[in-house]
Design a protein that fits this description.
Blueprint lengths: L3 H11 L3 E6 L9 H9 L5 E4 L8 H12 L4 E3 L13 E7 L5 H15 L5 E9 L7 H6 L9 H13 L4 E5 L10 H10 L4 E4 L5 H10 L3 E4 L1 H5 L3 H4 L3
Parallel strand pairs: 1-2, 1-8, 2-3, 3-4, 4-5, 5-6, 6-7, 7-8
Helix pairs in contact: 6-7, 7-8
The chain binds geranylgeranyl diphosphate, SN-glycerol-1-phosphate and magnesium ion.
Cofactor: Mg(2+)
GO cellular component, one term: cytoplasm
Family: Belongs to the GGGP/HepGP synthase family. Group II subfamily.
């Protein structure tokens, strides 16, 4: 099987858009796994992301083990902390929070992660993570004690993304934050897309098919959705037509 990053790169080059469901171990009930993952398997979803800002110890490992039994889709860790590293996932977004100025989330968590990653075969995907102001204080902002970038400051966001690419990041992730009031603006996505060559992921506050399409049209290669699937499983149906 092609590795996960190369598959994302190929999809980007072929113009095949990708859609990830974000499962937050903090909220997901294991007893619902069979029914939920069955819906995921029968949808247009291409990736399963697992992560959260505030997740208890060992919860992620148990969740990954169960989900892995239920799907052939790639399982990608999207961790808020080193405690969310599970050897049974396929890959990990190795995030550095480029929008903030908190050294813990720029480099320290990553250093702490190294001995844990060395015990796994996880594919490590270096990702520049950029939090964008979205109408309310999000969990990422609270946990990291950083400020998001102003959603109207397109230049600052674009330059941050470009700096990430120049630093060698393999992906850029524009994040409005889970449950965001406003998703990442299309003009921000467009501007970043025009400046970088690496794949672009966009997430936070996307709740309709139209918003997904708008993000793709603006230039997102992958969209990530958590809340809309959590709160309304009819959303799987809406995506079919
Ligand atoms: C390097 C390793 C292994 C860990 C640190 C990784 C870094 C720098 C993370 C950045 C900051 C962070 C807290 C990211 C979390 C991203 C995430 C999974 C968000 C998902 O949503 P939640 O923030 O949990 O939303 P809810 O409020 O809906 O629960
Ligand atoms: O829960 P939602 O608002 O879909 O956001 C998920 C987001 O954190 C992924 O980037
Ligand atoms: Mg959470």
């Amino acid at each position: 099987m092609m590795n996960i990053y190369n598959h994302i790169l190929q999809a980007k080059n072929d113009g095949n858009k990708l859609l990830a469901v974000l499962i937050d171990p903090d909220k997901f009930q294991l007893k619902n796994a069979l029914q939920f993952i069955d819906k995921v398997n029968n949808s247009v979803i291409t990736h399963i992301f697992i992560g959260g800002s505030e997740v208890g110890q060992n919860v992620t490992q148990a969740l990954v083990e169960v989900i892995k039994m239920l799907t052939d889709l790639p399982i990608v860790l999207f961790p808020g902390d080193v405690t969310q590293i599970s050897k049974d996932a396929d890959a990990i977004l190795f995030l550095s929070l480029l929008s903030g100025r908190n050294p813990d989330y720029l480099i320290d968590k990553q250093v702490q992660a190294v001995p844990l990653l060395e015990k796994t075969k996880l594919e490590v995907i270096s990702t520049g993570y950029i939090l964008i102001e979205s109408g309310k204080t999000t969990a990422v902002q609270r946990v990291t004690n950083t400020l998001p970038l102003n959603r109207t400051d397109v230049d600052a966001i674009t330059n941050t993304a470009k700096a990430g690419e120049l630093l060698g990041k393999k992906l850029i992730y524009l994040e409005a934050g889970s449950g965001a009031t406003y998703e990442v603006p299309a003009e921000v996505i467009e501007s970043v897309k025009n400046k970088i060559d690496i794949p672009l992921i966009v997430g936070g506050g996307i709740r309709t098919k139209k918003q997904i399409e708008n993000a793709f049209i603006a230039g997102a290669d992958m969209v990530v959705i958590g809340t809309a699937f959590e709160e309304d499983q009819q959303f799987f149906e809406q995506l079919k037509h």
